[in-house]
């Protein structure tokens, strides 16, 4: 998405914290499947999705899905470990994926792909309800979604302010309902991001995630938020 804000810019403008960005970076290290969700429109779902995908090495393929069955069949026949990117799971416009197309995304992911997508929801339960509304998706496939990122927005459309309202890890799915682990959230009363639980099961150590957060914060605070700055950070 040319022109979209990158993660350093999002940290600088207060949409998320450096620690949250570092955690998402670690999730991408592990090729975690994720969903970015928001109840209201224009909350920045696509921008946030692209910022998270920026953490992937250039060697990791991405496949922007059109819903065309021939595209899905070709991917299933030649899995490459890349990401199946869904602009949105919904029937709001013809360009979004719905019904059997959503079922096929999860079937294809089992061949050796990760999933990145957006949808409208405010809670983990609502997010998985939306996915299940498109067809029969077994728990074993829903469990491929390892991370949920929820967004908030106010002042739209005149003067929108957007932020990451919470990040969750999905620790399991039973009868279509996720067991979520709340990692962090925006505390409106305190006016700050609050950590509730540490992320578990990530390959990147806690020390490495702290080091990355410090580097992200340093760059954001200094206004060094260009694509070149981000590329240098990821390469270091």
> DSSP strand (E) fraction?
15-25%
Low-confidence stretches: none
> Structural class of the secondary structure composition?
alpha/beta
**Gross morphology:** globular
Main beta sheet, described? Answer: 8 strands, mixed
Q: Which quaternary structure do these chains form?
A: single chain
What does this protein look like?
By secondary structure, the chain is of the alpha/beta class. 36% of the residues lie in helices and 24% in strands. The chain has 9 helices and 8 strands. The chain has an 8-stranded mixed β-sheet with strand order 2-3-4-1-5-6-7-8, with helices on both faces. Strand 6 (161-174) and strand 7 form a beta hairpin. Helix 4 (69-77) packs parallel to helix 5. The longest helix is centred in the C-terminal third of the chain and has 16 residues, at 206-221. The protein is globular and about 45 Å long. The model has no long low-confidence stretch (mean pLDDT 95).
Topology, pairings included?
Elements (H helix, E strand, L loop, with lengths): L6 H6 L5 H12 L3 E5 L7 H9 L8 E3 L4 H9 L5 E4 L13 H10 L4 E6 L4 H9 L6 H4 L2 E10 L6 E14 L2 E11 L4 E4 L10 H16 L5 H9 L1
Parallel strand pairs: 1-4, 1-5, 2-3, 3-4
Antiparallel strand pairs: 5-6, 6-7, 7-8
